[in-house]
C-alpha cells in the first residue's frame, strides 16, 4: 500500500477523470498561446474537496462539508471516519470503527444530527442517550455531510457543539439515467477472514428534471477480533478503600480488607506499604469475537410541477446486527475486600514502584475466574420525509417539511457464565517489563476443566425505541435587493422508551457444577499480541450455548426475567419553536458584508417516567412533568476584505436538552432513613453563549488557509449532588413520601444544574492541489487541519477539569495524487489524550484514553471510464485503544482489532 502511494510521486500519470454528472468544471490550466486556455475537468476526490470548499465559502456561518466523489462513492467507508477529517471533530472508535463524534470538545449528547432535514437519533449497542451512532449506516447511502459549528436562528435548537446534516442522494443530483455498482472483499489480518461489502444505486430523471426517482442499497459484513489486556482499574486495600464507601462516620469495617499476610515484609511499615499500594483489580487477557451485518436502503422521488415548485420524498431504512462473544480469564481476589478475597490472599513476593503501585507480585490463596458472555443487538432504523419549496413570486418563497423516524434497538440475547477456581497458590503478575502486556502466571493448569466450578449464570434482555415526529416550515421575503426577512416555526415530538429485564446471578450450591468439561471450550489468547514469554496463553472458558442448555437458561422458571427498575424508563419531549431573522448584504468601506441576525424562541414540555424502589419487594412507577423556555438570539457576519479573504464573526445563545439517563425519576426511596437516590426530571437544559471569529484566505483555485477561534461560556452543566432538601422539592409525587410530612428534609442524591464552565480553542486549516509543481508532481495535493481545545467545568465535589471526551490536541492530514487513470491517498488522524471519568472509580484521580494515531490509505485505477479497481487499507499501523486510570497512567484497557485491507471494483454508467 505504501509502495503504491510512493510510486505515484514519480509515475507519469495524467489527470484523473472519473465522470460525475452535474459536477462543476473547477480548474483551468495554462496552454500555449496559439491554442488558448485549456479547460480541465476536475473530478474524483479532488472534485469532492473543491465542492466542499465552495459550500464553505458561500455560507454565512462556520461550516465544513464532505461531498461524495461520485454517485454512491463516499470518500470513507464509515461516516464517522469521514467526519473526523473536519477541523474540530474527533471520533470514538469501538470494534475497529468510528461510532460517535465529539465536536469542539462536546460529545454526542451536545451535537444534533439531521438526516434529510429532520433531527433524529440512531443507536446500537450501549447507546442510551441522545448520541447519534454513525455506524448504523453505510457511507455509500449518503451524498454529503455538512457540519455547522455556529448557530443561526433558522437552525433548529438543541446543540451546544454543532449541527450535522446528512443528506442521501436524490435523482435531480444527476442527469438522466445513472447507475453504479461496487463490491469489495475485506480482509482482517488478525482474524485472517474475508468479508463482503457491496453497494448499488440507480437513478433516473427526465430531461427537463420535472420528475425523477432513485433507489440505492448497501450491504456489508465484518467479524474482527477485539483482543487485549484489561484490569477494570487499579485500587488499594485496607481502610483507604473502605473510607471511600463509608455511609456514616461511625461505620465499623469488618473484616479490615488487608492481605492475610506478607511473607517478605519485615516491619509494620512494609506491611502498611503493601496494603496501601495500588494493584490491578482484575488483571486478565480477553478476547471478543464480533460478527456484524449491516444493510441499508434509500429511495427518493422528486417532482417539479412548475419552475417555482419542487416536492421531495425521501425514505431510508437501515438494519444493523452485531453479536459478540466476550471471553476472559484472570484473578478476582484483588477486587474483593472480604473474607473470600483480599483477606485470604498471602503476598509471597512483590515490588512497589516509586508512585506506590504494586507492579509485580506473587500470591497464594488467590481466587481465579473464567468468564464468557454472548450478546446480540439488532438495530432497525426507518425514516420518511416529505419536503418541498415554492416561490410565490421573485421575492417571496417558502419551504416545508414533515417527517417521522424510529430507531429500534433490541437486545434479545445478553447472557454470561462464570467458572471459579478458589484459593490457588503461585499466582503471579508482572508489569515491570511491559506496562500494557504483563506476564500472567495463574498457578494452575488453566486448561484443566476438572479444576473449575460453574458458579454464576446471568441473563438479560432489553429494548430501546427512539422516535421523532417533526413538522416545520419557513418563509422568506426579499424586502430589498440587499435585505431579506425570514420566519418559521417547528413542532417536534421525541420519545424514548427503554425496557430492561434480568435474572440469575451467583448460583446456589445445588445448582453449581464441579468439573466443567462437558460445557467448556478452550480459548487461545493473543493471536497477534506481544505477550511476555512464560505467560499462560490457553484457558478454559464457558461454552455459552452448552452452558445455557445445561442450566436451562431459557427454559427453567428460575431464570424467568424480571423488570430491572434502573434501566426501565420513558421520556417524552414535545418541542415547539419559532424564529425570525434578517439576512443582509451591504458594502462597508467598499467591502461586501454578508450576515444574518435573528432570534429563536423554544418551549419544551417533558414527561419523565421511571421505577422507584420503595422496598426490596415494592416498587412504583413515578411520572414527573417539567417545562422550560429558551430565547436564543444569534448573529453571523462575513466580511469580504478582498475577493479571496473572508473574515467571519458569530455569537449566539444555545441550548442542549438534558441527558436522557439523568431525567428518569426512577431510583430508590427509603422513607425510614429519609434518603432518595434518583435522576432529576426537573433538570434544565445545558445553556451556553458561543463566540466565533475566523479568517479564510482562498489564495488560489481550490485552496484555503484558514484559522478560527471559538469560546463557549457554559452557563449550566449537570453534576451529581447530595444534599438535604424537603421532599416537596424533589418533584416526586407526594404520596411516595410514605406518610411523612412533604416538608420533611430528605438526603437526596441526584443530578442538579451545576455552575457550568468554559471551552475555548483554535482551528487551523490548509488545503491545496499542487498544480504549481512541475510534471507529475502537479498531480499531488494536500488537506490538513489542527485543533487545540482547553476547557474547565465543575464536577462532583466542586472539582474542575476538562470536559469528558475532550482532546486538547487533534490533527488530520491527507496527501493525495490523482490523474485520469490513477488515484492514491494516505491519511493520518491524531487524537490526543482525553478523559472518560472524573473523578475516577476505585480511588483513582481520573480515567481516560491515551493518544492515538490512525493511518489509512487507498489506491484506485480506472480500467475504463466506467470501471475502476481499488485497494484500501484501514488502520495500517494497527493502533491500540489504550485506556488508563490515575495520574500514573496505569493500564485499564489495552486492545486492538488489527488492520483491514479491502480489494474492490466499481462500475458506473
Describe the structure.
Helix content is 6%, strand content 55%. The model is unreliable at 1-40 (pLDDT under 50). Strand 4 and strand 5 (97-103) form a beta hairpin. It is globular, with a radius of gyration of 30 Å. It is mainly beta and 909 residues long. The strands form seven sheets. It has a 22-stranded antiparallel beta barrel. The chain has a domain at 224-563. Keywords: Cell outer membrane, Membrane, Receptor, Signal, TonB box, Transmembrane, Transmembrane beta strand, Transport. It is found in: Cell outer membrane. Residues 556-876 form the TonB-dependent receptor-like beta-barrel domain. Its main location: membrane.
Largest sheet: 22 strands, antiparallel, barrel
**Overall mean pLDDT:** 89
Our estimate of the beta-strand percent is over 45%
Q: What structural category do the secondary elements indicate? A: mainly beta
The span between the termini is: 28 Å
Total count of strands: 52
Q: Enumerate how many helices there are, as a single number.
A: 6
Low-pLDDT parts are: 1-40
Question: Helical proportion?
Answer: under 10%
- Which geometry do the CA atoms define? globular
Measured on Cα atoms, how large is the radius of gyration?
30 Å
InterPro entries: Beta-barrel_TonB, Beta-barrel_TonB_sf, Plug_dom, Plug_dom_sf, TonB-dep_rcpt-like, TonB_rcpt_bac
Family: Belongs to the TonB-dependent receptor family.
Protein name: TonB-dependent receptor
Organism: Steroidobacter gossypii
Précis, in short:
The chain is mainly β.
Amino acid at each position: 500500500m505504501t509502495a503504491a502511494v510512493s510510486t505515484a510521486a514519480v509515475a507519469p500519470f495524467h489527470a484523473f477523470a472519473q465522470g460525475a454528472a452535474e459536477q462543476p468544471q473547477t480548474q483551468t490550466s495554462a496552454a500555449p498561446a496559439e491554442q488558448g486556455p485549456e479547460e480541465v475537468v476536475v473530478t474524483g476526490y479532488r472534485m469532492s474537496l473543491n465542492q466542499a470548499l465552495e459550500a464553505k465559502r458561500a455560507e454565512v456561518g462556520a461550516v465544513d462539508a464532505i461531498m461524495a466523489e461520485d454517485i454512491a462513492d463516499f470518500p470513507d467507508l464509515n461516516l464517522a471516519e469521514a467526519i473526523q477529517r473536519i477541523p474540530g471533530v474527533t471520533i470514538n472508535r469501538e470494534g475497529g470503527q468510528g461510532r460517535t463524534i465529539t465536536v469542539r470538545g462536546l460529545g454526542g449528547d451536545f451535537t444534533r444530527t439531521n438526516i434529510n432535514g429532520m433531527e433524529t437519533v440512531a443507536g446500537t449497542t450501549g447507546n442510551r442517550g441522545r448520541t447519534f451512532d454513525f455506524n448504523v449506516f453505510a457511507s455509500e447511502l449518503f451524498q454529503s455531510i455538512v457540519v455547522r459549528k455556529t448557530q443561526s436562528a433558522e437552525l433548529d435548537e438543541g446543540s451546544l457543539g454543532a449541527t450535522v446534516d446528512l443528506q442521501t442522494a436524490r435523482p435531480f443530483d444527476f442527469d438522466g439515467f445513472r447507475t453504479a455498482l461496487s463490491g469489495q472483499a475485506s480482509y482482517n489480518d488478525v482474524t485472517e477472514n474475508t468479508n463482503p461489502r457491496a453497494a448499488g444505486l440507480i437513478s433516473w430523471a427526465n430531461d427537463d428534471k420535472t420528475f425523477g426517482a432513485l433507489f440505492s442499497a448497501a450491504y456489508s459484513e465484518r467479524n474482527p477480533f477485539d483482543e487485549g489486556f484489561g484490569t477494570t482499574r487499579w485500587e488499594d486495600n485496607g481502610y483507604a478503600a473502605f473510607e471511600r464507601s463509608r455511609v456514616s462516620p461511625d461505620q465499623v469495617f469488618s473484616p479490615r480488607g488487608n492481605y492475610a499476610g506478607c511473607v517478605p515484609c519485615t516491619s509494620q511499615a512494609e506491611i502498611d506499604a503493601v496494603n496501601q499500594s495500588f494493584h490491578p483489580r482484575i488483571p486478565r487477557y480477553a478476547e471478543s469475537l464480533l460478527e456484524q451485518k449491516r444493510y441499508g436502503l434509500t429511495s427518493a422521488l422528486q417532482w417539479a410541477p412548475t419552475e417555482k415548485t419542487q416536492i421531495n420524498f425521501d425514505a431510508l431504512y437501515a438494519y444493523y446486527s452485531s453479536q459478540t462473544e466476550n471471553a476472559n480469564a484472570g484473578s478476582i481476589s484483588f477486587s474483593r475486600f472480604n473474607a473470600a478475597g483480599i483477606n485470604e490472599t498471602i503476598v509471597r513476593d512483590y515490588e512497589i514502584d516509586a508512585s506506590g503501585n504494586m507492579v509485580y507480585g506473587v500470591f497464594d490463596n488467590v481466587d481465579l475466574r473464567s468468564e464468557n458472555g454472548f450478546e446480540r443487538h439488532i438495530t432497525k432504523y426507518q425514516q420518511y420525509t416529505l419536503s418541498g419549496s415554492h416561490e410565490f413570486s421573485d421575492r417571496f418563497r417558502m419551504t416545508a417539511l414533515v417527517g417521522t423516524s424510529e430507531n429500534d434497538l433490541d437486545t434479545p440475547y445478553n447472557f454470561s457464565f462464570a467458572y471459579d477456581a478458589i484459593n490457588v497458590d503461585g499466582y503471579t503478575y508482572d508489569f515491570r517489563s511491559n506496562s500494557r502486556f504483563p506476564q500472567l502466571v495463574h498457578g494452575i493448569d488453566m486448561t484443566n476443566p476438572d479444576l473449575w466450578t460453574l458458579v454464576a449464570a446471568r441473563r438479560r434482555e432489553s429494548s430501546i425505541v427512539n422516535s421523532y415526529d417533526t413538522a416545520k416550515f419557513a418563509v422568506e421575503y426579499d424586502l430589498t435587493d440587499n435585505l431579506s426577512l425570514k420566519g418559521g416555526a417547528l413542532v417536534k415530538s421525541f420519545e424514548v422508551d427503554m425496557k430492561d429485564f434480568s435474572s440469575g446471578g451467583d448460583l446456589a450450591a445445588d445448582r453449581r457444577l464441579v468439573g466443567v468439561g462437558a460445557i467448556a471450550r478452550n480459548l487461545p489468547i493473543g493471536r497477534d499480541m506481544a505477550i511476555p514469554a512464560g505467560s499462560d496463553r490457553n484457558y478454559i472458558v464457558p461454552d455459552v450455548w452448552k452452558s445455557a442448555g445445561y442450566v436451562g437458561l431459557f427454559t427453567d422458571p428460575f431464570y424467568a426475567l424480571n423488570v430491572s427498575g434502573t434501566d426501565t424508563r420513558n421520556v417524552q419531549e414535545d418541542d415547539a419553536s419559532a424564529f425570525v431573522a434578517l439576512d443582509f448584504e451591504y458594502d462597508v468601506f467598499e467591502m461586501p458584508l454578508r450576515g444574518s441576525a435573528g432570534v429563536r424562541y423554544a418551549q419544551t414540555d417533558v414527561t419523565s417516567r421511571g421505577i422507584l424502589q420503595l422496598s426490596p419487594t415494592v416498587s412504583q412507577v413515578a411520572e414527573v412533568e417539567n417545562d422550560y423556555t429558551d430565547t436564543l438570539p444569534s448573529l453571523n457576519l462575513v466580511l469580504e476584505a478582498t475577493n479571496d479573504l473572508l473574515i467571519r464573526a458569530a455569537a449566539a445563545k444555545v441550548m442542549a436538552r438534558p441527558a436522557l439517563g439523568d431525567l428518569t425519576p426512577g431510583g430508590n426511596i427509603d422513607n425510614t432513613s429519609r434518603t432518595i437516590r434518583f435522576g432529576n426530571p426537573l433538570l434544565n437544559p445545558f445553556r451556553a453563549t458561543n463566540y466565533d471569529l475566523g479568517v479564510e484566505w482562498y489564495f488560489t483555485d481550490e485552496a484555503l488557509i484558514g484559522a478560527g477561534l471559538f469560546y463557549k461560556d457554559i452557563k449550566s452543566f449537570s453534576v451529581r449532588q447530595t444534599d438535604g432538601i424537603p421532599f416537596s422539592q424533589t418533584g416526586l409525587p407526594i404520596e411516595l413520601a410514605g406518610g411523612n410530612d412533604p416538608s420533611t428534609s430528605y438526603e437526596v442524591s441526584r443530578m442538579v444544574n451545576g455552575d457550568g464552565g468554559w471551552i475555548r480553542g483554535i482551528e487551523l486549516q490548509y488545503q491545496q492541489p499542487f498544480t504549481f509543481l512541475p510534471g507529475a508532481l502537479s498531480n499531488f495535493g494536500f488537506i490538513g487541519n489542527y485543533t487545540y481545545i482547553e476547557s474547565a467545568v465543575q464536577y462532583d465535589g466542586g472539582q474542575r477539569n476538562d470536559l469528558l471526551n475532550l482532546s486538547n490536541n487533534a490533527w488530520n492530514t491527507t496527501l493525495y495524487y490523482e490523474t485520469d487513470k490513477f488515484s492514491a491517498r494516505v491519511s493520518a488522524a491524531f487524537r490526543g489524550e482525553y478523559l472518560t471519568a472524573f473523578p475516577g472509580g476505585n480511588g483513582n484521580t481520573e480515567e481516560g484514553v491515551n493518544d492515538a494515531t490512525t493511518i489509512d490509505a487507498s489506491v484506485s485505477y480506472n480500467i475504463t471510464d466506467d470501471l475502476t479497481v481499488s485497494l484500501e487499507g484501514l488502520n495500517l499501523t494497527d493502533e491500540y485503544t489504550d485506556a488508563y486510570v490515575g495520574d500514573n497512567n496505569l493500564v485499564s484497557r489495552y486492545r486492538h482489532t488489527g488492520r483491514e485491507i479491502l480489494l474492490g471494483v466499481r462500475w458506473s454508467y
